[in-house]
Design a protein that fits this description.
It contains nine helices and 17 strands. By secondary structure, the protein is of the alpha+beta class. Helix 3 packs across helix 4. Bound molecules: adenosine-5'-triphosphate. Adenosine-5'-triphosphate binds next to strand 2 and helix 1.
């Protein structure tokens, strides 16, 4: 092992009979941000904790710059960890919290670092604020600044924004990426939120059942999901067999592949196939019209507004669909998140 940065090889994390992490390999280059994205129970936190040394590993290795750390205690790995609840010290002010891990630095240097980090997270001038007066979003920004202060060679973030509401998460995720990039921090970021993973990461690893089902840039993973269950988890719905897709105007011969319909993948077209309307719901800027796919559940068509009809003519837009291999048991064709 000589690769720069983090090299995880064949790592296994078990809890009794449960294999939470099932022989995973993962490389993270210096300065790179990787998101571990997956449903609840897919093994994201266990992998992160295994890398940190917070969970014993049943097999495999964790190395930094080619040096095996598997037997190195947590606090000697040079890694930082940030959790959902930033766990700030209530008896210290904001500046005292950020400076916590750099007590050994000369005072002027310490203060300069605190000032720089508070500026980066959008809290310039907050040094003397009491922790108890901060909003949830401000507290997580302080927690981020505190995690970055000792310049960890790797920062492990476990759902750092998930306790916040959606609007705040969307605002903070941009700040988070900007801050990690500005400090050239190498990071592994655990989230179950697809938008958050895509917004923060250089590469996204999709975990299913303790394994990495796919890893790539956000654009690659979205445009070309490796498997039906990955497409499903990313929010493609439904996944249509070739015959059904062809009936909705999908042009290419597909064999036994499936057409994964992305948001906006089904469009209104007067020359298209008329499908029964099941339900109509207004959204900001469009109406979501749910239609019945013959023999294959339902799908949503986006239209400018609701229509006073019981059926609507639609076709698939190939540019908003992906083609994926069917899984042998077809188990991943139902229950996907919708738009
Ligand atoms: N301390 C533990 N004891 C027993 N089983 C555990 C423990 N921690 C995790 N598991 C099990 O390991 C599997 C993976 O859990 P893990 O928390 O890593 O998933 P996750 O993807 O991070 O999920 P979530 O998004 O819900 O946190 C699950 O089946 C879980 O029940």
């Amino acid at each position: 092992m000589s690769a720069a940065g983090l090299s995880v090889r064949d790592i296994v994390v078990r809890f009794g009979p449960v294999t939470a992490v099932d022989h995973i390999d993962l490389d993270v280059a210096p300065g790179e941000i990787i998101a571990l994205l997956g449903a609840s129970g897919s093994g994201k936190s266990s992998l992160l904790r295994g890398i940190a040394g917070l969970e014993p590993i049943a097999g495999g290795s964790v190395a930094w710059d080619g040096l095996d750390l598997s037997r190195t205690p947590v606090h000697q790995r040079g890694f930082g960890v940030m959790f959902q609840d930033g766990q700030l010290f209530p008896h210290r002010d904001v500046g005292g919290n950020v400076a916590y891990g750099i007590a050994g630095l000369p005072r002027a240097e310490r203060q300069a670092r605190v000032t720089q980090l508070l500026h980066l997270v959008g809290l310039a001038g907050y040094e003397h604020r009491a922790i108890t007066t901060l909003s949830g979003g401000q507290a997580q920004r302080v927690a981020l600044a505190r995690s970055l202060a000792p310049r960890p060679r790797l920062l492990l973030l476990d759902e750092p924004l998930s306790a916040l509401d959606r609007a705040l998460r969307e605002r903070l995720v941009g700040m988070l990426r900007t801050t990690l990039k500005a400090t050239e921090t190498t990071a592994v970021y655990v989230t179950h939120d697809q938008d958050e993973a895509f917004a923060v990461a250089d590469r996204v690893a999709v975990l299913i059942d303790g394994r990495i089902a796919q890893i790539g840039s956000p654009g690659e993973v979205w445009r070309d999901p490796a498997r039906a269950d990955v497409a499903h988890f990313l929010g493609y719905s439904p996944l249509l067999p070739a015959g059904v897709a062809a009936g909705l105007g999908y042009p290419d011969p597909l064999g036994d592949k499936l057409v994964a319909v992305g948001p906006g993948g089904l469009v209104t077209d007067p020359a298209g196939r008329r499908l029964e309307i099941v339900e109509q719901v207004d959204h900001r800027g469009y109406a979501a019209i749910r239609v019945r796919i013959p023999g294959d559940g339902t799908a949503v068509v986006r239209a400018p507004a609701q229509v006073p009809e019981t059926a609507i003519a639609v076709r698939l837009d190939p540019a908003q669909c992906a083609v994926v291999a069917a899984s042998p048991d077809g188990a991943d064709r139902s229950g996907a998140p919708t738009m």
